[in-house]
Amino acid sequence: MRSIRSTLTVLAFAFAAHASAADITLLNVSYDPTRELYKDVNAAFAAQWKAQKGDNVTINASHGGSGKQARAVIDGLEADVVTLALAYDIDAIAEKGYLAADWQKKFPNNATPYTSTIVFLVRKGNPKGLKDWGDLVKPGVEVITPNPKTSGGARWNYLAAWGYALKQPGGSEAKAKEFVTALFKNVPVLDTGARGSTTTFVQRGIGDVLLAWENEALLAQQELGKDQFEIVAPSISILAEPPVAIVDKVVDKRGTRAVSEAYLNFLYTPQAQEIAAKRYYRPRNAEVAAKYAGTFPKVNTFTIDEVFGGWKKAQAAHFADGGVFDTIGAAK
Amino acid sequence: MNEIVLSRRPSKARVSWHAVLIAFAVTFLVLFLVLPLAAVFVEALRKGVGAYTAALAHSEALASIRLTLLVAAISVPLNTVFGLAAAWAMTRFDFRGKAWLGAFIDLPFSVSPVVSGLIYVLLFGAQGWFGPWLAEHDIKLIFAVPGLVLATVFVTLPFVARELIPLMQAQGSEEEEAARTLGATGWQMFFRVTLPNVKWALLYGVLLCNARAMGEFGAVSVVSGHIRGLTNTMPLHVEILYNEYDYVGAFAVASILALLALVTLAVKTFLEWRYGAELAARAPRGH
Amino acid sequence: MARRVLPGFGLSLGYAIAYLGLIVLLPLAALALKAAGLGFSGLWAAVTTPRVFAALKLSFGAAVLSAFINAGVGLLIAWVLVRYRFPGKRLFDALVDLPFALPTAVAGIALTALYAPNGWLGRWLEPLGLKVAFTQTGVLVAMVFVGFPFVVRTLQPVLETLDRDLEEAAESLGATRVQTFLRVLFPLLLPALLTGFALALARAVGEYGSVIFIAGNKPFESEIMPLLIVQQLEQYKYGEAAAIGVVMLGISFAILLGIGLLQRWSRRWAER
């Protein structure tokens, strides 16, 4: 029995680390688009920690769809910190007792060190003349967005469209539903994740406009062809807040609370804020934001709390089974 | 066997008939198999050989290759032994519920990869049946190598058995019975008669099992945890690179998977060639 | 036939059942119990939505069609690979396994790249009015691809050990090629062909990785069953996800069992 157990433990990549040891490993379980961001942040934090405390910190990164990543943590993936696409996914982890329900109060700005918004990526010269949300429901316009049922990013897209319709003169819930229904009628392909949609739009040449996180749109433009795509900022959009949290149960077990807290607090320092800005996330820090103002187009934004009363309500009303999104599909 | 074809001296009409069949087969294979394969290599080499090798030399790519080989090296032998046992029971004996057993063996094929990962999470995940006990004893199955092995074993379980059963059925059991009558022990009979008789089908089965074990994506994705450089197998690493817009890297790793498959197939071809005479001598065997 | 002469019944059957029990049945029991946790009405509600029906129809319809295509084409290709000599035969033989070896996600990406309107094949098909990528046809193409090796690989060993004397005897007795094939060969091949068909079908039904890339995934149109499971999981509804999984499994298992019985029947027919 003992030999089996020790074999298992060896096989199991137990990330056994002790707070006192010189080698510390952390696991940051994050969502898809933050790969580039955390590659840089992790290196910067490790260097800073080494300089200040003398310990070597290795931060292992795991990326995937936000919901899938949250499920992995619920099912036992030992994440010291989670940095996901929406508060709803971290709430789901909290529900299982891994962290306190008021986790969003533990770090500044709703525990979101950087934000983003939803913008349009269109083909060079904007051949269909798409300027605002209203243009997307015109006949013959093909809109590419991932499936809100499977992608956190797509839920931001959907809510941004809903919020726009609601805020138009004479806007109402019924009007908003009508608008979003028309919008999704123009969607020829629903990929399961944000990056899948980007590929469909960019590589496969499908669609006239891609709804995307601003950071994703800027990155895609950078990586895949500055001369082929343009970014259009709509008149109004949603303030996307991807939050961060410490997984209490894991850090207490592994004794990594101090370094995990330092890691997340590091995200708010000017140094990390600058990295975020370079990776196309809107920094919270006013000075850094001013410095990178040129990168980000001016967009009026509303928050999910203002318009939808928070993620839990939005999820239940729109994306749960039998919610508004399901009736949109059925209306076809 | 090919000699037999030659010695038959086919008539003209038959040759043209052959040509049509061959042409159809080749066209289908080219359209359905060669083109996707070509697409993989074209994409992998799009930025030249330098970028290709650089993508493969990356430490995370190497880690994923090592992990994939490890997982396959554990899973394939397990399923080979199972396949032999199951095929023996299924083809040499009559018992009630045989059709059920056959259907159970095939079951993993019909389980969606999404589900085949999920079932192990339901068993061994933190919220699962054995989750609390495992956590108490600090044993990690899910999001670690054992979980990857379990998911892979599940997905590739039927291959060897499925390859052996139709053949052993067709062969019948006369030779084995003769060996027993001549006084061979069970294991002697197994190693001297059964195993040589089925070795080609066994080899096919093992190769398929291996290919699928290395290529499995869906089930493994659920139990991996996606920790870079630690629990990413090659297919998972391909997805990660692809999602980073690193198409060259993604297809380079994918091409290695395709190459691994082609290498195992080359080994099979070599063995067939090396032992071809023996095989030909055995080929005309009745029921 | 004196089957009692052969040893190892208890050992082989016992081992096979124990292994199956641990690796397959126990985990699937966990799945079934998870689904049962919803209660009957919850279960019923989870699997009887119009959306589930639409996905069921697509998943099983396309899978059955793909299995028939694979059975026909696979038989032909197995025959060609075993019986004829032609340049590049070894290479083509080796390529048959490619769909197993290529990770399903890569297969999906490669197929989508080929069949998208701007792809190598798509640009020729699109003007003909044939849309493949992001339609139901795309689902079918991906399913044919992933199920392709099964029929070829189950037929090959049987074809190789098949006694040629039988064919020659039939022909010397005046049977035509077609008669020989239908009367002599086909009955002998049928069990293996059915196995291949069943496996290709089962594999296609559950396939996820390659299909989602090429399907378009629109509700009621090109949404497959496994995608619905993923959607339930995204809402942290393990029970509902398990319920859909159990339904899929039940149908697949019934098909496999049915084919197994058909096989026994066909074997008796062949032995007659």
Question: In a few lines, what is going on in this structure?
Answer:
The complex is a heterotrimer of chains A (332), B (287) and C (272). With 332 residues, chain A is α/β, with parallel strands linked by helices.
Radius of gyration of chain A: 21 Å
Main pleated-sheet profile of chain A: 7 strands, mixed
How much helical structure, as a percent, in the residues of chain C? over 70%
Work out the helix count of chain C. 13
The name of the CATH architecture of chain C is: Orthogonal Bundle
Helix content of chain A: 40-55%
Number of strands of chain C: 0
* Largest protein-protein interface: B-C, 114 and 110 residues
Shape of chain C: globular
If you average the pLDDT of chain C, what whole number results?
Answer: 86
CATH-defined superfamily of chain C: MetI-like
User: What integer value in Å does the Rg of chain C equal?
Assistant: 22 Å
Q: Can you tell me the residue ranges of chain A where pLDDT is under 50 for at least 5 consecutive residues?
A: 7-21
Structural class label of chain A: alpha/beta
Multimerization status: heterotrimer
Number of domains of chain C: 1
Which percent band covers the strand fraction of chain A? 15-25%
CATH topology of chain C: MetI-like fold
Topology of chain C as a string of helices (H) and strands (E): HHHHHHHHHHHHH
Tertiary shape of chain A: globular
